[in-house]
Amino acid sequence: MTGFRVGTRGSALATTQTTTAAQALSEMSGLEHELVIIRTEGDVRTGSLAQLGGTGVFASALRAAVLDGRVDLAVHSLKDLPSAQPEGLVIASVPERADVRDALCARDGLTLAELPEGAKIGTGSPRRVAQLLAVRPDLQMVDIRGNVQTRLARVPGLEHHDDNAPAAAGSPRGDLDAVVLACAGLDRLGMGWAITERLAPTVMLPAPGQGALALETRPVTAEVPGAGGSAADQPAADRLARALAEYDDPATRLQVTAERGLMERLEAGCAAPLGALARVERPEDADEQSPARLVLHAVVASLDGTRMLRKHASVELAEVRIRHEDGTPDVGVLSAARQLGVDVAEQLLADGADLLDRA
User: Which parts of the chain span the membrane according to its record (predicted)?
Assistant: First the structure.
C-alpha cells in the first residue's frame, strides 16, 4: 500500500465530504489517496426513500466495495447507515460533527412560523414530515427526491447555477414554498445562503447520527481479496489506521453511539419517524474535575404528527477522557453510551413506540 482508495457516492455532497476526509487522512498519514465513485441502489432507483427501504440503500454498495477490496474505506453520512454493523467491517473513525440541525430553505426568506397557511413543503423524510405537521398541521407535505440542487430548484429564488452540480433535467422547478434539508450538507457545499431558518432541536430533533460522518473499513488484520497483505504493506496500513484513530472525535463518537443504540433497540430503519440527539454536557457552575453527563433526547411520532412521544435520560461519565493513549476506544464508556440509548428506547417502547410499526 503506497496510498489508499476511498469509496464514495457520486453526488456533489458525497464527493465534497469524502474529499475533505480523504485529504485530512492523507495529511495525517503521509499517504496519497484516490476517490472511487460507487453507484448505489439509491442513486439508480426512483421512488420515495421510504418505499426503497430508507436511506440505508445508499450504504450497501459502498460496504460491498470495502469488503471485496475495491476500496480501502468508505465515507458515509452516518445517518444513512443501518444500525446493524456487518461482519468484516468496522467504523474506524467518526470525525467531529457538523451542525446537527435541519434547515428550512423557503422562498422570500420565510421562517417556519411565517410560511402561509397551506404552504407546500418538500422532503423525503418521514421524520421531518411528522415533526413539521406536529407544529404546523396546515402544511402540505410533498415527497421529493434528487440532489441538493434539484431540491432547491423547486423553491422560487433558490435555484443554484453550478455546472459541476446541476439540478436534474426535467425535474419540477419553482413549485414549492420550501424544502427541508440538513444544515450539515448545505454548509459542506458552501450553500448556507439557502437556509432561511436552522430549526432548533426543540422543534425538530435530527435523525440519529445527523451531521456526522462514518469512515468504515475492514479490520486492519483482515485479508483483502486481491489486495495483498505483505509485510511491506503493513507499515502503510498502520499509518492509515493511526490516521483514522487520530481523525476520530471522541465526543462525537460517544453521541452517535447513544443515538444508534436507541435506533438499534427500536429496530427502526433509517426512514422511520424517529429523532434522537445526544450531547455531552457539564453544569455551568461545575469545575473541571466534575464529571460530564451524556444526555440523550428522543422522539417517536406518527406520520401525521398527531402523536408524539418524547423521552430523555442521561448518564454520568465518570471519566471524561474516552480514549486510551494508544487511540483505541474506551469500551466501558462507549458501552455506557450505547446502554443509554437502549434505556431511552425501552421507555419509548413502554409508552407506545408501536407507532414505528405503522410507519
Answer: none
Which entry of 107, 136, 145, 279 is annotated as an active-site residue?
145
Quick check: is 311 catalytic? no
CB 9 within 8 A of CB 148: no
**Set 101, 154, 218, 270: catalytic member:** 270
Single out the catalytic residue among 80, 99, 248, 343: 80
Find the catalytic residue in 5, 9, 63, 128.
128
What does residue 173 show for φ and ψ, rounded to 5 degrees? -135, 140
Q: What 3-state DSSP class applies to 197?
A: strand
What are phi and psi for residue 120, nearest 5 degrees?
-95, 120
The domain segmentation of the chain, as residue ranges, is 3-94+213-247, 102-199, 250-358
Residue 121: beta bridge partners? 141, 178
For 3-94+213-247, CATH gives: 3.40.190.10
Can 127 be counted among the known catalytic residues?
A: yes
Is residue 105 flagged as an active site residue?
A: no
Neighbours of 58 (CB within 10 A): 23
Q: Which fold has domain 250-358?
A: Double Stranded RNA Binding Domain (3.30.160)
pTM of the predicted model as reported, rounded to 2 decimal places = 0.86
pLDDT at residue 242 in the model = 94
Residue 79 annotated to the active site: yes
CATH 3.40.190.10 fits 102-199, yes or no: yes
pLDDT in tens, 62-89: 999 999 999 999 999 999 898 888 999 9
The yes-or-no answer on residue 45 being catalytic is no
What distance in Å separates the CA atoms of residue 346 and residue 324, rounded to the nearest whole number?
31
